[in-house]
C-alpha cells in the first residue's frame, strides 16, 4: 500500500473513513528468482482473484510461488505455493521468503518519503514502473543503463496535456 498517513493530512483533506489502508493505493509485485527481475503494478484491490491473476499471468503452470501468509493467495491452482508467516514473526521457511521483493518495496518507499513526498494515485503506476526498471538494471554499468533507458524511450512521448489531464 502506498499513500500518506491520515494523521499527517490537513483537516480538510482527511478522508475520515477509518485507519490502516484508507486513502492508500495497492501495489502488487513479483520477483523472478531466476533472473532477479521485478514486475510491479498498481492493482485495484488486494482480493484473492485480483492477486491470483497478477501471479498467474507471468508464471508458468507448475512454478513455485513464495508469498507471505495473506489469505488472498490461498488456493492457487497449478502453482506450487509456499508461505512465510510474517504475522507470527517468521521471515524464512526453507526456500520460502520474500526478502528480494521486500528490498524493492523499501527502495520505493524510501523514494516516497525522502524524495517525492507524494505519489498521486493518478501517476503511481509511473513511479512503480520507474523503480521496477531501476531495480532490473541495477547490475548493469552506467553506460549500459543509459543505453537501456534510451532504447526503452524510443517512439514514446509523454505530452504535458496528458500528464495534467483529469
CATH superfamily: Ribonuclease H-like superfamily/Ribonuclease H
Provide the low-confidence segments as ranges.
none
CATH topology: Nucleotidyltransferase, domain 5
Structural class: alpha+beta
In CATH, the architecture is 2-Layer Sandwich
| Beginning-to-end CA distance, first to last residue | 23 Å
What's the total helix number? Answer: 5
Shape category: globular
Write down the domain tally.
Answer: 1
Widest beta sheet: strand line-up: 1-2
Largest sheet: 2 strands, antiparallel
Number of strand segments = 6
Order of helices and strands: EEHEEEEHHHH
* CATH class membership: Alpha Beta
Features:
166 residues; alpha+beta; Nucleotidyltransferase, domain 5; two-stranded parallel ribbon; 34% helix; globular
Structural summary, described in words:
34% of the residues lie in helices and 16% in strands. It is built from 5 helices and 6 strands; from the N terminus they run ββαββββαααα. The strands form 3 sheets. The chain has a two-stranded antiparallel ribbon with strand order 1-2. A hairpin with a 2-residue loop joins β5 and β6. It is globular and about 45 Å long.
